[in-house]
Amino acid sequence: MKNKKEEEEKEPKDEILSRKEEELSKFFNQEKLKISNTRKLYIPFYFMILILFGTIAYIKISEKPLNDLALQLAVIFSILLIIATEIHRIGNSYEINNRSVVHKKGYFSTISKTIQFGAISDSDVSQNLWQRIFRYGNVEIHMYSRESKSLIKDIDKPFKFVGFLQNKLKASGGRKRG
Amino acid sequence: MESTQLIHRQKKSKHHIWMTLILIFAGILGFLVYTSFYNPDLGFSLTGNVIQENFDETGIKISTHVEPPEEMTIKTEIEKLEIKIQETGSLTIGKENFELKKASLILDNFNGKISFNKDEIIELDGKASKVFVDGIPISNKDKLEINIQNSKYSFLKLNNFYLDSLSYITSGRIKLNNEKAIINIDNEEFKIKKFRGTLEINSQELRLNGYADESNLGTIDVRSNQKTVVNKNSEETKTS
Prior knowledge:
The complex is a heterodimer.
Chain A: H1 2-28, E1 33-36, H2 43-61, H3 68-90, E2 92-96, E3 100-105, E4 111-116, E5 120-126, H4 129-133, E6 136-143, E7 149-156, H5 158-172
Antiparallel strand pairs in A: 1-2, 2-3, 3-4, 5-6, 6-7
Helix pairs in contact in A: 2-3
Chain B: H1 2-38, H2 40-51, E1 60-66, E2 72-87, E3 90-93, E4 96-98, E5 103-116, E6 120-128, E7 130-133, E8 136-138, E9 144-176, E10 181-202, E11 205-212, E12 214-217, E13 220-223, E14 228-231, E15 237-239
Antiparallel strand pairs in B: 1-9, 1-11, 2-5, 2-9, 3-4, 3-9, 5-6, 5-7, 6-9, 7-8, 9-10, 10-11, 10-12, 12-13, 13-14, 14-15
Helix pairs in contact in B: 1-2
């Protein structure tokens, strides 16, 4: 009886694990990985909007006079803030394909920086406390030839990004240190 | 050196953006809170100056002599509340219970809830900075808690208070903008929005004196920002 129960309990755990493995293998077997800045970067701005609308809701509930001009200002400020964050987000995009890492920057005229796998020596992930709490961070890609590095800023799940990069480096036979 | 200067400048401009955003946010939040909790007149006078030209005070000046609603509940701050009680049901001021047959009550800076119909104060519950019973002041260091229940009254006046909206079917006479327009309604809808002023119930009549942003009087809509009176039936538009 006990064995049966244990088996029944094990089955869903195994299922979850296998599903996760599948998802990971799907992720790592992608041809390209294209990402931009995470929206988590704008949490303080979203928090401002939340405070404004929370205050408006409280004023309405407590039946206090709600000034039309103040309401309009709050709505306009919130809309502009959301638009600005989205525009800022579009400004940077990062792509890992089978040969290189590409960083595109700009809105109307764009600057594209390509780092071939052969030039990459290693990569670091850096996160401050805020970034650790919300699971995003920066990735530094170091290069052999030049004493320079490329900074991929404020991306979601940076360790997964680095894992994908390492995977692609392995697959392409590019040099790798750590 | 050049690159460090560039990074320094970028950081500086980022800080400027942050500071500007926080200042704008704090300004809007402050304006919202101040105009709602501390000085509602400031907000109305500001918007009034932007939108209107003709009204010295903001909104439509309204004065009513109509039948009171069956029951009304107001939860707000009232500068001065005057009541002439005919028969006390229950009256508690601070921790003391009063048993009075007839009394005149004045509450300064009342903040709370009042429910009433044309004859009776169903419930009054809140705090006041000063309470006068038949002219005798009852004071306390803090605000005095006051509770009245089921007390008949002959006179009720709420001075300088804000009413978000009021809507019911009634009959009577409504004067707009210093009697420039007088409207008689007979069992028709009476609706006002964002009223600031005085409410008085005396001898079965509701008198409102003050300013409202919007009013619906039977078939007539009046809006302060458009400065027009629109008759829904005839679709005539008159500028007030």
